[in-house]
Fold each of these.
Amino acid sequence: MNKLFSALVAKRVVATVSALLVIAIGCGAGIWQLSRGNAKIVLAANLLARQQMPILSANQGPWTLEEASERRMTARGQYIAQAAIWLDNRPRPIPLAGSNVAQSGFYLMMPLKLDGRDEVLWINRGWAPRNNENRETLPPVTTPNHVVNIEGIVFAHPGRVYELGGGKISAEINKPRIEQNFDLVAEGKLRGWKQAPFILREVEAGADDGLLREWAPLTNGVDRHYAYAFQWFALAFAGFIFWLVSGLRQYKRQGFVNGDQK
């Protein structure tokens, strides 16, 4: 047993340390991927539970973010189309069937002046594809010029993407503009509006306005996390097997050389 330990560990310090490092990294990354997948499942369950609570009305507010977050809400008002913000580099929420390539486009953020209230509620109206030939050409979208009733789910923000340069907001606030990210607080200060402290992501799928509102479920990507976890655990196992097999071979070679094998 002492000879085996010596052959596997004592005489192979560098190989042993390297194997332990690979095993630690593989197991750590695998556990992290599993935790991310489980966190998405828990988050989706909490979201579903909150959506089953009574529907709120934005016109009967004011509501805080804590009160309204992830709950269903209705809103009645009129869009301020000239203040629209197009959030760039947003992939299609649910890819086209049979396509493995993410289609890039925009989220359309548009303020809604609430009927009967001196308050604005920002609406994520949906997703539209980008013009691949000219990025500055905005998708053709229909905006009602009358009071509308919409329903959606409350979120703190529409999601963020990596942005270089600190995200400076354009000074041209009287016409639609393209931005990488949406800063609710900054928009309120820039325009001097009284705003709801959250955004409403519209859920109506039947409106023929040029926007897609088939939102991806929060559990989207869980299978990918589990697949990554399997790969990391497999790497750790492979590292252990390589260390063990190479050590046993060295042990057997030493046995032959020393005349221990007959």
Amino acid sequence: MPCRTLIVTLTSAAALLAPGLSQAQVTLKADGQWRYLLTAGANVSSGNNDAAALNLAAEGARQTNDDKWTWDAKADHARSAGVATTDRYGLRTQYNRDISPDWFGFGSGETLSDELANISARYSVASGIGRHVWRDERGFFDVSAGLGYSYDWYVAPTDVAGAVREQYGRTELVLSEESSHRLTPTTNLRQKFTLYPNLRDSGKYRAVLDTGLTVEMTPTINLSAGLSYRYDSAPGNNLEKGDAMFVTGVSLRFD
């Protein structure tokens, strides 16, 4: 799939799916206080269908008039008939610092384990600049660009960049857009799309799309649903290029 086509497809999917899908989002308020959100979802079936799934997520955010620091952690595990169908764990953080009313600099770090995608461990760091397209009490829309470096360790050696490798590192571009919207007094929408063109192996790239919706039932309890999509143009032998996950759950907000 050409890179331009992928961008159009995924950003269109975000616009179409976001009203009904997505992940919970932590409260963002420019008062310098840390706020947290914990989300859990699970389902179990037995008899003719022997399956179970558990999804856990945690988020934290601290924002002032000049900077913002966020982190999130996720654990997703599912089994069907005794066989793992999902086994993904991730942690990421990002710090933004305004350098003018419209522009900001950022630094980020991420770690990921996804054994079914043959990723024993992935570590990524990035830094760059971004622009506040708009932001007010209803939310924000930011775009950013930078350089990053990612290093993968594989569960099993695989064909990457023309050779069979156990591990692989590369410099990447990091192109991102992110927005948050208060649709109603009790409904919040959030989405983020990031593209990672590989600068070591021209023409290869990764893409990540997350959309998020939170519906407040009480000041503390929220209903949430989530859609995430991961795409790798060269994932290795016998692996699908795209992975999608839809999760629903209940969130506890600590403001």
Amino acid sequence: MTETSSLPPAVRAAAELAASALTAVRAEQLTTPTPCGDFDVRALVDHLAWGALLSQRAATRLALEHDWSSNRPAPFLDGLDPAEWPAAIIPELDAAADAWADPAAWEGETLMGTTPMPAEVVGPLMLAEFVLHGWDLARAVGAPYDVPAEVGEATLAAVRPVAEMGRDGGWYGPEVAVPVDAPAFERALGLSGRDPAWAATAGRGAARG
């Protein structure tokens, strides 16, 4: 089990990984397919924006009502050209990492959107959200994405207990077989319905969450 004291730095590293992928997005790539279900790059960038906002709210015990099937962009993207979205999201990821840096954020109960959940469960899920979607985006745009071993372990620890629920709920695709001795992050990818070997020319994957 991942030690709670190691999670705030892991969230920071996860946010930085997602930010590195966002930095690599070019305007002409916004319609490029991603490993993430029906999301193209534009939709995935917006999903990351909502994820950053959801993470901030969860760390500070605030509800977030949002229809995840809607095409409405995150409020802080309102009025911006989609080509400007990636740069606008990076400070929000940093703010989420700041919020989870407070040890109190990991204690007691919080809200995942509008659903009460233990903070010690929500925090790792937010970490995985950043790392996995950062990988989706990096793969789609052809950017490097090097996940530190400890972040991979934290991501696997977050995904493993919710993988079946995620598949039932449609936010993870069918499990992709990955060797048992593969790095932790590759095993997390497989559990979440992602093929570690996915490339933009290979087509769409099934994962969404």
